[in-house]
Amino acid sequence: MAGTEASSAAAALERLLAAGKDSALLRFGLGNAYLKAGDAPLAAEHLRRALAFDPRYSAAWKLLGQALAAADRTTDALAAYRDGISAAEKNGDKQAMKEMQVFARRLAKQKGQE
Known about the structure:
- By secondary structure, the protein is mainly alpha-helical.
- It has a single domain (3-113), classed as Alpha Horseshoe (Serine Threonine Protein Phosphatase 5, Tetratricopeptide repeat).
- It has six helices and no strands.
- Helix 2 (24-36) runs antiparallel to helix 3, helix 2 (24-36) packs parallel to helix 4 (58-70) and helix 4 (58-70) packs antiparallel against helix 5.
- The longest helix has 20 residues, at 94-113.
- It starts with a helix and ends with a helix.
């Protein structure tokens, strides 16, 4: 999704939010759209709201880690991955758990090289 497409997707989702349609899935969609549009801090904000609705939402944890990493908030990203790994493990979501473990290892390695 190109930046312009992501921006128009975010605008459409914002209209749903303004109409009172708030939900974990809507917030996840907003987080995803804003991350693709290059606004990692706003993406992280929406993803945290998604997780307030459903703390076991593995995909939201994974995307939150990515948004925080993109916003140069490495420590927060690693914490999000750690919490996401725990949530995924409780859900039996092994694929998401493995992906977040890989992302966290890579991020920790990069942090150590700075």
